[in-house]
Amino acid sequence: MTVDTAAYLAGFRRRLDLPALVDVHTHFMPDQVMRKVWAYFDQAGPLTGRPWPITYRDDEQVRLKTLRDFGVRAFTSLVYPHKPRMAAWLNEWTAEFAARTPDCLHTATFYPEPEAPEYVRAAIAGGARVFKVHIQVGAFSPLDPLLDPVWAILAESGVPVLIHCGSGPAPGEFTGPVPIGELLRRFPGLRLIIAHMGTPEYTEFLDLAESHPLLRLDTTMVWTDFSESDAPFPPGERERLRRFGDRILFGSDFPNIPYPYAEAVRALERLDLGDDWLRKVCHDNAVALFDLR
Q1: For residue range 63-77, what is the model confidence (pLDDT) as tens digits?
Q2: Quick one: DSSP state of residue 254?
Q3: Which residues touch 44 (CB under 8 Å, ≥6 apart)?
Q4: What is the pLDDT of residues 226-284, one digit of tens each?
Q5: Which fold has domain 1-290?
Q6: Of 34, 55, 54, which Cα lies nearest the Cα of 44?
Q7: Dist CA 223 CA 227 (whole Å)
Q8: Strand 104-105 to 107-109 pairing
Q9: What is the rounded distance in angstroms from the CA atom of residue 186 to the CA atom of residue 19?
Q10: Which of 256, 104, 250, 136 is nearest to 201 (CA)?
């Protein structure tokens, strides 16, 4: 059945009396980088065991209009380097993108390299409101000594870090909850947002949330038919989802999703955790975290 995503989301917002959605997990990148990411997903079959078609493979301005037509009030431009001397350049691009895109939360990134503390400080001074780290793609440990001063800066600043550290869709050498637990032991002031609820180590990352009150998780791709067929969320964790309703943030992975955007929200509705939970996850929690009032 064809889904009219804009109409469905408008109805969803009406039912919940929501002014808008806030999506903390969206990707806007320099054009040449985005095309390389899409090429990776085009060939992701051997990695994930199934095709991964990009649903919103459009020009940047079309993608921006699409999000706004879906009722998204604020979103991110998540970027991530896969090699040294790339992060500072990406941060220059995201700063320019945020300056011309007022509804985008100014996003930055980093990589374990000697220059990282300098450009992280510069990004924060320039107004960065969230950082993105991708442990799998970057193929580095979050415990790399070169990152110690970076984590210290971020813990002191309070700027959130959205970190892809779970072992999905394919494990990396440094993915999983153990290094993140050690990172939080060393830097308890960090405001980490665990991407994809830590897929597939859902229980282990919820365990970390139990002992680290600043830890948050995003819903990106979780509970969709696509993800449930490969990494189903454990039904026994439903009560912790309800209990952590103030610390879960809506994310979509737009535009790199293999299904319509509506599915990301419909998956949350299917959890049947109540309208108040949905309001918090889809809007209120991010509004409070990023002071979007």
Answers
A1: 999 999 999 999 999
A2: B
A3: 51, 52, 169
A4: 999 999 999 999 999 999 999 999 999 999 999 999 999 999 999 999 999 999 999 99
A5: TIM Barrel (3.20.20)
A6: 54
A7: 6
A8: unpaired
A9: 39
A10: 136
247 in Cβ contact with 191 (< 8 Å): no
Token pair for residue 161? 């870090």
Rounded distance between C-alpha atoms, residue 174 and residue 161, angstroms: 17
Please give the single-letter amino acid code of residue 125.
A
Task: Summarize pLDDT for 8-39 with one digit per residue, the tens.
Answer: 999 999 999 999 999 999 999 999 999 999 99
pTM of the model: 0.97
For tokens 């918090």, what's the residue? 280
How many angstroms separate the CA atoms of 237 and 210, rounded? Answer: 12
Sequence-ordered alpha helix ranges (H) in 78-230: 87-100, 116-125, 135-138, 148-157, 177-186, 202-211, 225-228
Angle of CA points 82, 127, 120, to nearest 5°:
40
* Residue 255, preceding peptide bond in cis (omega within 30° of 0): yes
Q: Is 38:88 a contact under the CB 8 Å cutoff? A: no
pLDDT class for 50, splitting at 50, 70, 90? confident
Calculate helix-pair angle for 116-125, 87-100, nearest 10 degrees: 10
Question: Which of 71, 141, 143, 84 shows the shortest CA–CA distance to 110?
Answer: 84
Edge-to-edge strands, sheet with 130-134: 107-109, 130-134, 161-164, 192-194, 216-218, 248-249
